[in-house]
């Protein structure tokens, strides 16, 4: 069986090429579970290209088209998690779907579009809050980075999902972090600090 060539400069071939490049560049930033999901998306995109590209013997099946569409939607959501305006309506409009059609696609996964966006945002917040290299980043900054604009709502959702509030998780992560990764304490009463803040030179 021969496979058709996949043009990388247009259509689905271009989408696949850009996706694989993005995966190569940002893959190390992802958790193992996310990488497995991303690999699955890459397989689905490749399969959709092979069955639907020029020279394919048959039209892609409805299942292949649906999987390719969901892969594009998943990628779009992942790239826009930090946008507080991201919503099911935005996702539907971006992909030329009615909101009802989009909700039906996700219903087969057992998760609504809004729930998927919320879950993925919380996962990224959890990663940042437990990352030893980001312990000094304020909790509210992490929340804003991933699209949460209401601090109380974020804290409630985080606690419901992980059984502990974001600050409690951050404290636990800081206690278990290597010494070099812990945020340095700010000394405000030392002679050196007082001299730096209150004088322009030695007395």
Secondary structure layout:
Layout: H1 11-26, H2 32-52, H3 62-79, H4 88-94, H5 99-107, H6 113-130, H7 139-145, H8 151-162, H9 166-176, H10 191-198
Descriptive notes:
This protein is mainly alpha-helical. It is about 65% helix and about 0% strand. It contains ten helices and no strands. The protein has helices at about 10-25, 30-50, 60-80, 90-95, 100-105, 115-130, 140-145, 150-160, 165-175, 190-200. The chain is globular and about 50 Å long. The N and C termini lie far apart (about 85 Å).
Characteristic terms for this protein:
203 residues, 10 helices, 63% helix, disordered C terminus
* Biggest beta sheet summary: none
| Mass-distribution shape | globular
The gyration radius over C-alpha positions equals 23 Å
Which whole number gives the mean pLDDT? 79
Global structural class: mainly alpha
Give me the strand/helix succession.
HHHHHHHHHH
Number of strands: 0
Taking the alpha carbons of the first and last residues, their distance comes to 86 Å
Q: How large a portion of the residues is in β-strands, by DSSP E?
A: under 5%
The helix content is: 55-70%
Count of separate DSSP helical elements = 10
| Low-pLDDT residue intervals, each spanning 5 or more residues | 184-203
């Amino acid at each position: 069986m021969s496979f058709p060539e996949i043009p990388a400069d247009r259509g689905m071939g271009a989408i696949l090429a850009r996706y694989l490049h993005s995966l190569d560049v940002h893959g190390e930033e992802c958790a193992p579970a996310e990488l497995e999901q991303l690999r699955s998306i890459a397989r689905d995109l490749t399969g959709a290209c092979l069955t639907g590209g020029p020279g394919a013997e048959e039209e892609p099946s409805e299942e292949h088209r649906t999987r390719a569409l969901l892969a594009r939607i998943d990628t779009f959501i992942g790239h826009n998690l930090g946008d507080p305006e991201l919503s099911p309506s935005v996702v539907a409009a971006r992909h030329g779907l009615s909101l009802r059609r989009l909700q039906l696609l996700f219903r087969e996964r057992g998760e609504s579009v809004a729930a998927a966006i919320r879950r993925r945002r919380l996962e990224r917040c959890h990663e940042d809050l437990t990352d030893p290299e980001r312990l000094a980043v304020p909790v509210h900054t992490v929340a804003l980075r991933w699209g949460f604009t209401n601090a109380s709502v974020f804290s409630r959702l985080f606690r419901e999902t992980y059984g502990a509030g974001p600050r409690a998780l951050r404290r636990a992560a800081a206690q278990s972090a290597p010494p070099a990764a812990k945020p340095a304490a700010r000394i405000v009463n030392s002679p050196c600090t007082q001299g730096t803040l209150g004088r322009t030179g030695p007395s």
